[in-house]
Amino acid sequence: MNLQENMKVLDVGCGVGGPGREITRFTDCEIVGLNNNDYQIERANHYAKKYKLDHKLSYVKGDFMQMDFEPETFDAVYAIEATVHAPVLEGVYSEIYRVLKPGGVFGVYEWVMTDEYDENNEEHRKIAYGIEVGDGIPKMYKREVAEQALKNVGFEVEYERDLADVNDEIPWYYPLAGELQNCQTFGDYWTVLRTSKVGRLVLTELVGLMEKVGLAPQGSKQVTHALEDAAVNLVEGGRKKLFTPMMLFIARKPETASE
Protein backbone atom coordinates (compact mmCIF):
# COMPACT_ATOMS: atom_id res chain seq x y z
CA MET A 1 0.00 0.00 0.00
CA ASN A 2 3.08 2.21 0.29
CA LEU A 3 1.87 4.08 3.38
CA GLN A 4 4.00 7.13 4.09
CA GLU A 5 4.64 9.59 6.90
CA ASN A 6 1.70 11.91 7.65
CA MET A 7 -0.67 10.19 5.22
CA LYS A 8 -4.23 10.13 6.56
CA VAL A 9 -5.39 6.51 6.66
CA LEU A 10 -8.72 4.91 7.59
CA ASP A 11 -8.86 1.58 9.46
CA VAL A 12 -12.31 0.10 8.74
CA GLY A 13 -13.51 -2.10 11.60
CA CYS A 14 -10.48 -1.32 13.75
CA GLY A 15 -11.32 -3.41 16.83
CA VAL A 16 -9.16 -2.27 19.75
CA GLY A 17 -6.60 -0.82 17.35
CA GLY A 18 -3.81 -3.41 17.41
CA PRO A 19 -2.91 -3.33 13.69
CA GLY A 20 -3.17 0.46 13.60
CA ARG A 21 -0.67 0.84 16.43
CA GLU A 22 1.86 -1.32 14.63
CA ILE A 23 1.29 0.38 11.27
CA THR A 24 1.67 3.90 12.63
CA ARG A 25 4.86 2.90 14.49
CA PHE A 26 6.29 1.53 11.26
CA THR A 27 5.12 4.23 8.81
CA ASP A 28 4.43 7.31 10.99
CA CYS A 29 1.13 7.82 9.17
CA GLU A 30 -2.01 9.17 10.88
CA ILE A 31 -4.74 6.57 11.35
CA VAL A 32 -8.44 7.02 12.05
CA GLY A 33 -10.11 3.85 13.32
CA LEU A 34 -13.80 3.26 12.57
CA ASN A 35 -15.76 0.97 14.90
CA ASN A 36 -19.38 0.55 15.97
CA ASN A 37 -18.53 -0.70 19.47
CA ASP A 38 -18.13 1.78 22.35
CA TYR A 39 -16.13 -0.60 24.54
CA GLN A 40 -13.61 -1.40 21.81
CA ILE A 41 -13.17 2.30 21.04
CA GLU A 42 -12.55 2.98 24.73
CA ARG A 43 -9.88 0.26 24.82
CA ALA A 44 -8.32 1.51 21.57
CA ASN A 45 -8.00 5.02 23.03
CA HIS A 46 -6.55 3.57 26.23
CA TYR A 47 -3.85 1.66 24.36
CA ALA A 48 -3.06 4.62 22.11
CA LYS A 49 -2.36 6.75 25.19
CA LYS A 50 -0.51 3.93 26.95
CA TYR A 51 1.93 3.57 24.06
CA LYS A 52 2.12 7.34 23.46
CA LEU A 53 0.58 7.11 20.00
CA ASP A 54 -2.54 9.18 20.63
CA HIS A 55 -1.11 12.05 18.57
CA LYS A 56 -1.23 9.73 15.54
CA LEU A 57 -4.27 7.58 16.32
CA SER A 58 -7.93 8.56 16.72
CA TYR A 59 -11.15 6.57 16.78
CA VAL A 60 -14.66 7.25 15.55
CA LYS A 61 -17.87 5.36 16.28
CA GLY A 62 -19.86 4.69 13.15
CA ASP A 63 -21.39 2.33 10.62
CA PHE A 64 -19.09 1.32 7.79
CA MET A 65 -22.13 1.09 5.53
CA GLN A 66 -22.88 4.79 6.15
CA MET A 67 -19.67 6.60 7.05
CA ASP A 68 -19.78 10.12 8.49
CA PHE A 69 -16.75 11.31 6.53
CA GLU A 70 -16.62 13.79 3.70
CA PRO A 71 -15.84 12.47 0.21
CA GLU A 72 -12.15 12.09 -0.64
CA THR A 73 -10.97 12.42 2.97
CA PHE A 74 -8.33 9.67 3.16
CA ASP A 75 -5.08 8.97 1.34
CA ALA A 76 -5.48 5.23 1.94
CA VAL A 77 -7.90 2.78 3.56
CA TYR A 78 -7.43 -0.72 4.91
CA ALA A 79 -9.69 -3.36 6.47
CA ILE A 80 -8.51 -6.52 8.23
CA GLU A 81 -11.09 -9.31 8.50
CA ALA A 82 -13.88 -6.78 9.08
CA THR A 83 -15.83 -6.14 5.87
CA VAL A 84 -17.00 -9.77 5.79
CA HIS A 85 -19.66 -8.60 8.27
CA ALA A 86 -21.20 -6.25 5.69
CA PRO A 87 -24.66 -7.35 4.50
CA VAL A 88 -23.59 -6.50 0.94
CA LEU A 89 -19.94 -6.16 -0.07
CA GLU A 90 -20.70 -3.46 -2.64
CA GLY A 91 -22.21 -1.41 0.18
CA VAL A 92 -19.08 -1.16 2.31
CA TYR A 93 -16.73 -1.07 -0.68
CA SER A 94 -18.66 1.84 -2.20
CA GLU A 95 -18.39 3.80 1.06
CA ILE A 96 -14.66 3.14 1.17
CA TYR A 97 -14.38 4.27 -2.45
CA ARG A 98 -16.31 7.45 -1.63
CA VAL A 99 -14.08 8.55 1.26
CA LEU A 100 -10.84 7.64 -0.53
CA LYS A 101 -8.99 10.30 -2.51
CA PRO A 102 -8.50 9.73 -6.26
CA GLY A 103 -5.38 7.62 -6.72
CA GLY A 104 -5.68 6.28 -3.17
CA VAL A 105 -5.23 2.61 -2.32
CA PHE A 106 -7.54 0.23 -0.46
CA GLY A 107 -6.03 -2.93 1.05
CA VAL A 108 -8.28 -5.62 2.48
CA TYR A 109 -7.90 -9.01 4.16
CA GLU A 110 -11.22 -10.60 3.22
CA TRP A 111 -12.88 -13.78 4.48
CA VAL A 112 -14.08 -15.63 1.37
CA MET A 113 -14.87 -19.07 0.06
CA THR A 114 -12.19 -20.11 -2.41
CA ASP A 115 -12.55 -21.13 -6.04
CA GLU A 116 -12.77 -24.75 -4.81
CA TYR A 117 -16.11 -24.01 -3.14
CA ASP A 118 -19.19 -25.36 -4.92
CA GLU A 119 -22.50 -23.79 -3.91
CA ASN A 120 -24.29 -26.91 -5.18
CA ASN A 121 -22.29 -29.24 -2.93
CA GLU A 122 -24.24 -29.93 0.27
CA GLU A 123 -21.09 -30.56 2.33
CA HIS A 124 -19.56 -27.29 1.11
CA ARG A 125 -22.74 -25.37 1.93
CA LYS A 126 -22.82 -26.86 5.43
CA ILE A 127 -19.28 -25.61 6.11
CA ALA A 128 -20.09 -22.12 4.84
CA TYR A 129 -23.30 -22.01 6.89
CA GLY A 130 -21.46 -23.06 10.05
CA ILE A 131 -18.99 -20.21 9.57
CA GLU A 132 -21.80 -17.72 8.94
CA VAL A 133 -23.85 -18.66 12.00
CA GLY A 134 -20.95 -19.01 14.41
CA ASP A 135 -19.19 -15.80 13.38
CA GLY A 136 -22.19 -13.53 12.78
CA ILE A 137 -21.67 -13.25 9.03
CA PRO A 138 -24.64 -12.46 6.75
CA LYS A 139 -23.24 -14.38 3.77
CA MET A 140 -19.94 -16.03 2.91
CA TYR A 141 -19.10 -15.07 -0.67
CA LYS A 142 -16.64 -16.64 -3.08
CA ARG A 143 -13.38 -14.91 -3.95
CA GLU A 144 -14.63 -13.95 -7.39
CA VAL A 145 -17.68 -12.22 -5.89
CA ALA A 146 -15.50 -10.04 -3.64
CA GLU A 147 -13.21 -9.18 -6.54
CA GLN A 148 -16.14 -8.26 -8.76
CA ALA A 149 -17.70 -6.17 -5.97
CA LEU A 150 -14.52 -4.08 -5.83
CA LYS A 151 -14.64 -3.56 -9.57
CA ASN A 152 -18.37 -2.81 -9.54
CA VAL A 153 -17.91 0.22 -7.29
CA GLY A 154 -15.05 1.60 -9.38
CA PHE A 155 -11.85 0.13 -7.97
CA GLU A 156 -9.02 -1.17 -10.12
CA VAL A 157 -7.75 -4.39 -8.54
CA GLU A 158 -3.95 -4.28 -8.74
CA TYR A 159 -3.02 -7.35 -6.72
CA GLU A 160 -4.69 -10.36 -5.15
CA ARG A 161 -3.36 -13.39 -3.34
CA ASP A 162 -4.68 -16.00 -0.94
CA LEU A 163 -2.15 -15.75 1.86
CA ALA A 164 -3.57 -18.88 3.49
CA ASP A 165 -2.45 -20.93 0.48
CA VAL A 166 1.33 -20.52 0.55
CA ASN A 167 2.31 -24.07 1.63
CA ASP A 168 3.10 -23.12 5.22
CA GLU A 169 4.30 -26.05 7.32
CA ILE A 170 1.90 -25.06 10.09
CA PRO A 171 -1.59 -24.15 8.83
CA TRP A 172 -3.33 -20.92 9.82
CA TYR A 173 -6.12 -22.83 11.57
CA TYR A 174 -3.88 -24.76 13.99
CA PRO A 175 -5.01 -22.79 17.10
CA LEU A 176 -8.58 -23.95 16.41
CA ALA A 177 -7.79 -27.56 15.47
CA GLY A 178 -6.69 -28.85 18.88
CA GLU A 179 -3.84 -30.97 17.48
CA LEU A 180 -0.60 -31.46 19.44
CA GLN A 181 1.66 -31.94 16.41
CA ASN A 182 1.49 -28.24 15.54
CA CYS A 183 2.58 -26.98 18.97
CA GLN A 184 5.74 -24.87 18.92
CA THR A 185 5.76 -23.27 22.38
CA PHE A 186 4.42 -23.97 25.87
CA GLY A 187 1.63 -21.48 25.20
CA ASP A 188 0.60 -23.50 22.15
CA TYR A 189 -0.06 -26.55 24.36
CA TRP A 190 -2.49 -24.50 26.45
CA THR A 191 -4.22 -23.27 23.28
CA VAL A 192 -4.52 -26.80 21.91
CA LEU A 193 -5.87 -28.07 25.23
CA ARG A 194 -8.62 -25.46 25.20
CA THR A 195 -9.59 -26.19 21.58
CA SER A 196 -9.47 -30.00 21.79
CA LYS A 197 -12.74 -31.95 21.94
CA VAL A 198 -12.29 -32.48 25.67
CA GLY A 199 -11.41 -28.84 26.23
CA ARG A 200 -14.45 -27.63 24.32
CA LEU A 201 -16.73 -30.02 26.21
CA VAL A 202 -15.40 -28.83 29.57
CA LEU A 203 -15.75 -25.17 28.55
CA THR A 204 -19.32 -25.66 27.32
CA GLU A 205 -20.40 -27.41 30.52
CA LEU A 206 -18.67 -24.79 32.65
CA VAL A 207 -20.49 -21.99 30.82
CA GLY A 208 -23.75 -23.90 31.24
CA LEU A 209 -23.15 -24.21 34.98
CA MET A 210 -22.35 -20.50 35.26
CA GLU A 211 -25.57 -19.74 33.39
CA LYS A 212 -27.60 -21.87 35.81
CA VAL A 213 -26.24 -20.15 38.92
CA GLY A 214 -26.57 -16.67 37.43
CA LEU A 215 -22.88 -15.95 36.81
CA ALA A 216 -23.41 -15.83 33.05
CA PRO A 217 -26.35 -14.38 31.06
CA GLN A 218 -29.07 -16.65 29.75
CA GLY A 219 -28.14 -18.00 26.34
CA SER A 220 -24.40 -18.10 27.05
CA LYS A 221 -24.20 -21.87 26.56
CA GLN A 222 -26.02 -21.59 23.25
CA VAL A 223 -23.57 -18.90 22.10
CA THR A 224 -20.65 -21.12 23.16
CA HIS A 225 -22.07 -23.96 21.05
CA ALA A 226 -22.33 -21.62 18.04
CA LEU A 227 -18.72 -20.45 18.46
CA GLU A 228 -17.50 -24.03 18.77
CA ASP A 229 -19.42 -24.99 15.64
CA ALA A 230 -17.86 -22.05 13.83
CA ALA A 231 -14.38 -23.20 14.88
CA VAL A 232 -15.04 -26.72 13.61
CA ASN A 233 -16.20 -25.41 10.25
CA LEU A 234 -13.33 -22.92 9.96
CA VAL A 235 -10.89 -25.79 10.41
CA GLU A 236 -12.76 -28.03 7.99
CA GLY A 237 -12.98 -25.23 5.44
CA GLY A 238 -9.25 -24.62 5.82
CA ARG A 239 -8.29 -28.27 5.52
CA LYS A 240 -10.33 -28.71 2.36
CA LYS A 241 -9.13 -25.36 0.97
CA LEU A 242 -12.73 -24.17 0.67
CA PHE A 243 -12.28 -21.12 2.91
CA THR A 244 -9.60 -18.49 3.51
CA PRO A 245 -9.55 -15.77 6.20
CA MET A 246 -6.79 -13.86 4.42
CA MET A 247 -7.64 -13.18 0.80
CA LEU A 248 -5.58 -10.08 0.13
CA PHE A 249 -6.83 -7.52 -2.38
CA ILE A 250 -4.99 -4.30 -3.19
CA ALA A 251 -7.25 -1.96 -5.15
CA ARG A 252 -6.85 1.62 -6.34
CA LYS A 253 -9.33 4.42 -6.90
CA PRO A 254 -8.53 5.86 -10.35
CA GLU A 255 -6.82 9.25 -10.47
CA THR A 256 -9.60 10.42 -12.76
CA ALA A 257 -12.39 9.37 -10.38
CA SER A 258 -14.87 12.05 -9.38
CA GLU A 259 -17.85 12.10 -7.07
From TrEMBL:
Which pathway does it take part in?
A: Steroid metabolism; ergosterol biosynthesis; ergosterol from zymosterol: step 1/5
Q: Which organism is it from?
A: Spathaspora passalidarum (strain NRRL Y-27907 / 11-Y1)
Question: Which PROSITE patterns is this protein grouped with?
Answer: SAM_MT_ERG6_SMT (PS51685)
Query: Record's family?
Result: Belongs to the class I-like SAM-binding methyltransferase superfamily. Erg6/SMT family.
Q: What catalytic activity does the UniProt entry give for this protein?
A: zymosterol + S-adenosyl-L-methionine = fecosterol + S-adenosyl-L-homocysteine + H(+)
EC numbers, comma separated: 2.1.1.41
Specify the SAM-dependent methyltransferase Erg6/SMT-type domain's residue ranges.
1-254
Keyword list (alphabetical) reads: Lipid biosynthesis, Lipid metabolism, Methyltransferase, S-adenosyl-L-methionine, Steroid biosynthesis, Steroid metabolism, Sterol biosynthesis, Sterol metabolism, Transferase
Q: What is this protein called?
A: Sterol 24-C-methyltransferase
GO-annotated molecular function: identical protein binding; sterol 24-C-methyltransferase activity
GO terms under biological process: ergosterol biosynthetic process; methylation
**What's an example GO cellular component term for this entry?**
endoplasmic reticulum
Tell me the InterPro entries matching this sequence. Erg6_SMT_methyltransf, Methyltransf_11, MeTrfase_SMT, SAM-dependent_MTases_sf, Sterol_MeTrfase_C
The keyword Lipid biosynthesis appears for this protein: yes
Q: Which Pfam families match?
A: Methyltransf_11, Sterol_MT_C
Say if the entry is tagged with keyword Manganese. Answer: no
The record's listing under Gene3D superfamilies reads: Vaccinia Virus protein VP39
